[in-house]
Design brief:
By secondary structure, the protein is mostly beta strands. Helix content is 0%, strand content 54%. The strands form 2 sheets. Strands 2, 4, 5, 6, 9, 10 and 11 form a 7-stranded mixed sheet that branches. It has a 4-stranded antiparallel sheet with strand order 1-3-8-7, with no helix packed on it. The chain is globular.
Length: 116
């Protein structure tokens, strides 16, 4: 399984970005997928989860602002991020989760920088 993340960039506070994660070597809709992020000097943290049954879960930090979704035809996972804050600045990673809800494969990460 290969995961290719993209869509990061520099945005002002209050702005929006949509991250993409193209999946190859596996069928996305059969997978439990997640976005994580890691800010400088901090541990990697879970941001959002999308199950194969389309159930979503969000960390408190992104509730009401972030939306995880997928396009089965494109085999691509998305993270729509609105009302971005400087504290959202981090490298964002997509991953598929195994049956134990642990990350199994990681994408390469995409940098999101939110300026105040």
């Amino acid at each position: 399984v290969q995961l290719q993340a993209s869509g990061g960039g520099l945005v002002q506070a209050g702005g929006s970005l949509r991250l993409s994660c193209e999946v190859s070597g596996s069928t996305l809709k059969l997978k439990r997928m997640a976005w994580h992020r890691q800010a400088p000097g901090k541990k990697r943290e879970l941001v959002a989860v999308l199950t194969s049954g389309s159930t979503t879960r969000y960390a408190d930090s992104g509730k009401g602002r972030f939306t995880i979704s997928r396009d089965d035809a494109k085999n691509t996972l998305y993270l729509q991020m609105n009302s971005l804050k400087p504290e959202d600045t981090a490298v964002y990673y997509c991953a598929n989760l195994n049956t134990g809800w642990r990350p199994e494969y990681w994408g390469q990460g995409t940098q999101v920088t939110v300026s105040s």
